[in-house]
Amino acid sequence: MILFQEAYKKVLDNTFDFGDEQVAILESMGRVLAENILADRDFPPFDRATKDGIAINYFAIEDGCTRFKIEGVAAAGTPQQRLSNVNNCLEIMTGAVVPENADSVIMYEHLTIQEGWATVTKLPNKGQDIHYQGSDSPKGAVLLEPGKQISAGAINVLASVGKSEVLVKKLPKVTVISTGNELVEVHERPLPHQIRKSNSLSLKAALQKQGINAALIHLTDEKEMISKAIRKVMETSDVLMLSGGVSKGKFDFVPEVLEELGVEKVFHRVAQRPGKPFWFGLHQESRTTIFSFPGNPVSTFANYHIYFLPWLYKALRVDYPERKVVLAEPIQNKTDLTLFKQVRTFWKNGSLHAHLIVENGSGDLTSLANLNGFIRLEPRDGIYDKGELVPFIKT
Ligand SMILES: Nc1nc2c(c(=O)[nH]1)N[C@H]1C(S)=C(S)[C@@H](COP(=O)(O)OP(=O)(O)OC[C@H]3O[C@@H](n4cnc5c(N)ncnc54)[C@H](O)[C@@H]3O)O[C@H]1N2
Ligand code: MOO
Ligand SMILES: [Mg+2]
Predict the structure, then answer these.
(1) Regarding the domain delimited by 323-394, which CATH topology (the fold level of the hierarchy) does it fall under?
(2) Do residues 356 and 331 make contact, with C-beta atoms less than 8 angstroms apart?
(3) Does the beta carbon of 200 lie inside 6 Å of ligand 1?
(4) Ligand 2 lining (C-beta closer than 6 Å)
(5) In this structure, are residues 89 and 68 in contact, taking their beta carbons and an 8 Å threshold?
(6) End-to-end alpha-carbon separation of the chain, Å?
(7) Tens digits of residue pLDDT in 214-232
(8) What is the mean pLDDT of the segment spanning 360-380?
(9) Architecture of domain 48-131
(10) Which of 1, 44, 92, 149 could covalently link to 269 via disulfide, CB atoms 3.0 to 4.6 Å apart?
(11) Ligand 3 centroid vs 76 CA: distance in angstroms?
């Protein structure tokens, strides 16, 4: 058995690059950018009116003119026009190209318009209400850099520079295997000694949140079958995630099968609760990373967030946020294990506080309906006081 910090470090020391791929712009949402995104033209690409009103040449104002003959209308989406006389004006709409030899825009609220003439009711400043060509970013400027997680805001930028396809980091191919004779499908009615399998669906849903579409396989507790299935899955998956069959029971075949298949055991068992019998290893030949989580529902769920998510982020070269929360009540950890306690957080005076969830151990899956994270408590003789900051793993 190894300490939590040691296990965590070993997991993070064993990441690898999954490569890059081109995806359609909308598919890139939430993915990690793998290329520089450059401005393909000046932003904005022309001097653009920022108000609906008239475009004038300020020379006329300096000359004492406050009444302008309207030559026409410049709408957004029409080519640049030209004032034929600098004492005239063009009506102009937000987003339209400022006419040649106009240099200022006056909004309708500062004008009266009558019979083809605009009269200024509030004198403008020279150059006002124009968004100048290239003033946001000049052509060729780097707008987004590799490593950035693509947000809806970034999609706006990608679309503006014409990136209908985007180069992103590839996500790992993940297969989730659940094991257990007692488990039946969600739509089935369990016999009194059976339960519905829930861990694999919960893992699949959590992976879905990361953009990963995991394959699901369920196996009964038969060693030969487990061995065959794992061998096959390792050929095609980057990650094999198992739930159950990893402890000391007569039917917990997973650790011996993995070792028989030549998977290098990095560690088995961590001084933590829940999730103690966690088995982590690598199959060098197929380049598969194996996260074999203990079957108790809270153990599988906790270890996915404690280990797999930081591992994934590191593999994708994205910073994993180190979060902390304020304890809303005192708590102890007089054990010799790192404890992960289920919490529900709430905002108070601008900081995130955590309430402990009443639960009945790592087999109590009903508590999973209420938590939104775990706090991490290292062993300590004294108390963790109310108001203390402790590490928080968001779920
Ligand atoms: N002698 C010992 N016994 C146990 C130890 C130990 O150290 N010595 N560790 C305990 C701890 S801690 C855990 S956690 C569990 C881990 O068990 P396994 O990984 O071997 O998992 P199973 O035996 O297959 O199942 C345990 C439990 O979880 C339920 N389960 C399993 N898979 C699913 C699923 N997909 N959906 C829902 N529920 C699932 C299963 O029915 C069992 O109730 O071992 C302790 N024992
Ligand atoms: O570690 Mo087990 O995961 O406590 O139930
Ligand atoms: Mg077991």
Answers:
(1) Beta-clip (2.40.340)
(2) yes
(3) yes
(4) 273-276, 294, 296, 299, 362
(5) yes
(6) 26
(7) 999 999 999 999 999 999 9
(8) 95
(9) Beta Complex (2.170)
(10) 1
(11) 68
ipTM of the prediction: 0.98
Would you state the CATH architecture of domain 21-42+143-169?
Alpha-Beta Complex (3.90)
Residue ranges of the domains in the chain? Answer: 2-18+171-315, 21-42+143-169, 48-131, 323-394
Q: What is the pLDDT of residues 298-308, one digit of tens each?
A: 999 999 999 99
With a 6 Å cutoff on the Cβ, whether 198 touches ligand 1 is yes
As beta bridge partners, residue 354 has 327, 345
CATH 3.40.980.10 fits 2-18+171-315, yes or no: yes
Question: What's the pLDDT score for residue 331?
Answer: 98
Model confidence pLDDT, tens digit, residues 263-295: 999 999 999 999 999 999 999 999 999 999 999
pLDDT digits (tens, 9 = 90+) for 128-181: 999 999 999 999 999 999 999 999 999 999 999 999 999 999 999 999 999 999
Q: Is the dihedral of CA 120, 124, 126, 128 positive or negative?
A: negative
181 CA distance to ligand 1 middle (Å):
12
Per-residue tokens: 1 = 């058995």
Backbone angles phi, psi at 394, to 5 degrees: -75, 140
Question: Which ligand 1 atom lies nearest to the CA of residue 243?
Answer: 32
Burial 294-311 (b: 16+ CB within 10 A, else e): bbbbbbbbbbbbbbbbbb
